[in-house]
C-alpha cells in the first residue's frame, strides 16, 4: 500500500470517527442546543477529513480545488443553519415563557 | 461487495417512503421526505444516472421540501380555524368527516397495483442490447451535444420537453387561479437578522454561477436546463425569504414575458425550422449545438421564474392580515 | 483494490449514521430537533457523495454535493422564516 493510500485511509477513518461522534451527540445529548453544537462541529470536521482524504485519492488539482470549495461552502451553510436553528428555538422558548408567565 | 451499499440504500429508501406516509406527526414527514430525497439521489447515482440524481437532489430535497413547509403551515392554520383549538396543530393524515373514508385507501391500492404491473412489464420486455441506447449514441454527433441525456431531452424528444415547460407554467396558473394574485403586500419587509441577510447575499451569486455552470456543462456532462433552473429558482426563493422579492417588484408585463420566454422561444424556433423545410423541432445539424444552448438558457430562465413564482405565491396565500407585519 | 472495499465500508458506515439519525426525527420533542437532522443528512450525504466520487471515479458527483449543500440551507432558512410568522405558537 503506497503512502498516499495509507494517508487516505487514515484521513477517512478519522472522518468517520467524527461523524460517529456527531451522530452519537445528536442521539444522546439532553438538550437541543448541545445536540446542535455537537452535530455542527463534529460533522463538519468529519466532512473536512473525508474531503481531505478524497482530494488526496483523486489526485487531480481541479478536483481538489472543487472539493475544497465544497467543504468551504458547507462550513458556511452549516454554521448559518446552526445559528438559525438555535435562534429559532430561543424564540420559541421565549414565546412559550411569555405565554405561561404572563 | 458493492451490493452492500445498494441493499442498505434500498432498505433505507423504502423504509423512509413508508414512514413518510405513516408518520404520526406532519412535521416529521417533511424531514423524512428530505432524507428520502437524499436516499433516492444516491440510488440514482448507483444506477448511473447522474443527471437524474442532480435533478432529484435539487427538486425533492430542495424545492419540494420548501413547498411542503408552506403546505404544512397552511394546513395547520386551516385546522386551527376549523376546530378552534390553538395548541393542537399536529394532526394525522386522516381527514375529519370524509363521507367515504375507504376511498383514499382503495385509490392508493389501485394506483400502486397498476404501477407495479407496468413496471414488471417494462422489466420483462426489456429488449436485449439496451433498446434505443445504441441508436441514441450513434446519432449523438449529429445532435449537436455530447451528453446523451441532453440530446434526448432537447433534440430527439424536444416536443416532450417543450410540453413539460408548459406543465410547470400550468401549475403556476393553478396557484394563481386559487387566489394567489393579491399578494406582494409587503415588498419592503427585509429580514432583520444581519447574519441571514449576509448569508443570503453571499449565496445568491454562488447559486447563480453554479446554475450557469450546470446549464452549460449539460452539453457534455451531467447537467442541463432543468437542474440549472431549480438552482436559479432557489436563488429567487432565497432572495424572497430574505426580504428582497425581486421577482415581485418588477412590472407585470416583464414578469409575464420572462415566464413565457422559454415556452414561446422554443415554439418559435420549432416553427422557424418548419419554415426552413424541416419538421417541428427538427434542428439543422450544422447549428444544433448553438440552438440547443439558446433554448436551454431561455427555458432555464423561464422555469426558474416559474418556480420562484410558485413558491412566493404559495407562501403568501394563507397569511392572515395581522401577521403581515411580524416583528423580529 | 482493497481501497474499493474500504470505500464501500466507509459508505456503509455513513449510511448507518443516517439511519441512526432518523431516531431524532421520531423522538425530537421540538421541530428544531427534527430540523437539525436535516443538517445531519445533508453533511453525511455530502460525505457519501465525496467518497462515491472517488470510488466510481466520476467527478461529476461533486456537482450533486454542491447542490445538496445549498438546498439544505434553503430548507432551514425557509422553515425559520416561515415559522417566525406564527406568533409564538409551539411547533
Tell me what you see in this structure.
The complex is a heterotrimer of chains A (102), B (328) and C (91). Chain A is mostly helical and 102 residues long. Chain A has one domain. Chain A contains three helices and no strands. The radius of gyration of chain A is 18 Å and the shape is elongated. The mean pLDDT of chain A is 88. By secondary structure, chain B is an all-alpha fold. Chain C has three helices and no strands. Chain C has helices at 2-27, 31-55, 61-83. In chain C, helix 1 (2-27) runs antiparallel to helix 2. The radius of gyration of chain C is 16 Å and the shape is flat.
Number of strands of chain C: 0
Radius of gyration of chain B: 22 Å
Sheet with most strands of chain C: none
Strand content of chain B: under 5%
> How many individual domains of chain B?
3
Mean pLDDT across the residues of chain B is 78
Query: Biggest interface and its residues per chain?
Result: B-C, 61 and 51 residues
Number of helices of chain C: 3
Quickly give the structural class of chain B.
mainly alpha
Q: What is the CA-CA span between the terminal residues of chain B?
A: 53 Å
Shape of chain B: globular
Average pLDDT number of chain C: 82
Helix and strand pattern of chain B: HHHHHHHHHHHHH
Query: How many E strands of chain B?
Result: 0
End-to-end distance of chain C: 50 Å
DSSP helix count of chain B?
Answer: 13
Rg of chain C computed from alpha carbons, rounded to a whole number of angstroms? 16 Å
Secondary-structure element string of chain C: HHH
Taking pLDDT < 50 over at least 5 consecutive residues as the criterion, the unreliable ranges of chain C are 86-91
| General form of chain C | flat
